[in-house]
Amino acid sequence: MRQPFVAGNWKMNGSRESAGRLLEDLVRNLSPGNREVAVCPPFVYLADAMRVLKGSEIALGAQNVSEEESGAFTGEVSATMLQDFDCAYVIVGHSERRALYGETDEVVARKFMAAVRTGLRPILCVGETLEQREEGITDKIIGEQLDAILGVAGVHAFKEAVVAYEPVWAIGTGQTASPDQAQAVHAMIRSRVAAADDTIAAGLRIVYGGSVKATNASELFAMEDIDGGLIGGASLDAESFLSICQSAE
Ligand code: 13P
To answer: Complex ipTM, two decimals?
Structure first.
């Protein structure tokens, strides 16, 4: 019932040339299938990406968005600007933004709202650090991250959203959560949303991120509540990313 979703988060990698090559390889070689695929390049490559992806099955997303609509906010990019470049998705609350740029749950909630207001679909990232997992407070931390958004946006805003569970200890470390570890958190996220609305929870795509590779994607995506992936490093290589997309059907 839920269509699987696989998105590549390129982070701050590549050049205009390598981005163009990667996009063309993806468009040329993605085989049709029952899953949705998106890529999230850096802002400055969105215009090129829009042109290459036009008419393809690959959707475009951005990695960040301003919480403001317009005005004197030097260096910021608004949700309507992203729409100008055919973005359908935007990542909000990535752990790198939370940890390195001080984005609090409150800021993430405002960004989530800015996206929803404009008709962009937020990919909301949540996840615990290694210390928090070892302390046994994973569910509490993720519950708080979710509640911060549910409280401000309301459960109806989740109709258009994707949630990405990204354990911080698994991002870029090569240490993937086991399918059972990830499934347990995904089920918890779904039940938390179900407490507000069963139907929305049942339709909500919850994807896993953190060292997903071509070799471990199938076993993760086979779990009941894992509806695809948010892929970092492996999304920079066309062959690996295409193979991961293939695993999500
Ligand atoms: P890696 O796949 O490189 O671990 O990154 C995951 C991630 O942060 C995706 O948003």
So the answer is: 0.99
